[in-house]
Write a structure and sequence with these properties.
With 259 residues, this protein is α+β, with helices and mostly antiparallel strands. It has 2 domains: 102 residues, Pseudouridine synthase I, catalytic domain, N-terminal subdomain (Alpha-Beta Plaits), CATH 3.30.70.580; 133 residues, 2-Layer Sandwich (Alpha-Beta Plaits). Helix content is 18%, strand content 28%. It has 5 helices and 10 strands; from the N terminus they run βαββαβββαβββααβ. Strands 1, 2, 3, 4, 5, 6, 7, 8, 9 and 10 form a 10-stranded mixed sheet that branches. α3 crosses α4. The longest helix is centred in the first third of the chain and has 13 residues.
């Protein structure tokens, strides 16, 4: 049978999602926990590979198993074997046509940015920070240039393994809430470091270093070296994943602090 789970995790303490020889990936921890409940070696596949230091308020993964367990075992049982900083939220049995990565029709990320003179203490590692005042209106004007289907090579990491740099960005919105900026991005898929590279340019524009139109110059130029530096991973969260309606799966988590 094929089981799909929704989970959340802090990127702190992990070397990203993907399994590593030293066993420091989120995937390593989840596979070990699921295997302990299944009593057999389990391999899990996720909707998206988050980088080192990037968090997931909502990640989806699936695995195949020959054993039958109550769905509660794939939640509370698995959680009893997981390290601090990650938890399975729910589990469902699905047909073999479901694939956590390839069946996803949309993914969303949120960057939580503290815009204050003083750096964060309590939330260090969980939010980004910029000390100079940022103009959210200018940032939204700049982000509007990115909406639609484009070649996002200018925001692509050199080590990106995606077959094509063309993505359909459906939402790019910055909302100010007091000293915080909540920056949301939705697309059919994302390139390696794409959101963090966009954030670097948005902060550059929000601080007045460049006008909003500069974002379009960077986009059409397709040259990563002309864009701003990659922004800190700390404030980035995988926030939602959408699948076709017939799978009847949640799209996001209702218990997220920054919802």
């Amino acid at each position: 049978m094929r089981i799909v789970v929704g989970l959340e995790y802090r990127g702190i303490g992990f070397c990203g999602w993907q399994s590593q020889p030293q066993g420091c990936g989120v995937q390593d921890a989840l596979e070990a926990a699921v295997s302990a409940i299944a009593g057999e070696r389990i391999v899990v596949t996720a909707a998206g590979r988050t980088d080192t230091g990037v968090h997931a308020a909502f990640q989806v993964a699936h695995f195949d198993t020959l054993v039958s367990r109550p769905l509660t075992a794939w939640v509370r049982g698995v959680n009893s074997h997981l390290p601090p900083g990650m938890a399975v939220l729910w589990a469902r049995e699905v047909s073999e046509e479901f694939h956590a990565r390839f069946a996803a029709t949309q993914r969303g990320y949120r960057y939580v940015l503290l815009n204050h003179l003083v750096r964060p203490g309590l939330n260090q590692g969980l939010i980004g920070w910029h000390h100079r005042p940022l103009d959210a209106d200018a940032m939204n004007q700049a982000a509007a240039h990115l909406i639609g289907q484009h070649d996002f090579s200018a925001f692509r990491a050199a080590e990106c393994q995606a077959r094509s740099p063309v993505k359909d960005l459906r939402l790019a919105r910055i909302e100010r809430r007091g000293d915080y900026l909540l920056c949301d991005f939705c697309a059919d898929g994302f390139l390696h470091h794409m959101v963090r590279n966009i954030m670097g340019c948005l902060v550059h524009i929000g601080s007045g270093a460049q006008p909003p139109e500069w974002m379009n110059e960077i986009l059409v130029g397709r040259d990563r070296t002309r864009a701003a530096p990659t922004f800190d991973a700390a404030g980035l969260y995988l926030s939602h994943i959408r699948y076709p309606e017939h799978f009847a799966l949640p799209e996001s988590s209702e218990r997220w602090l920054y919802a």
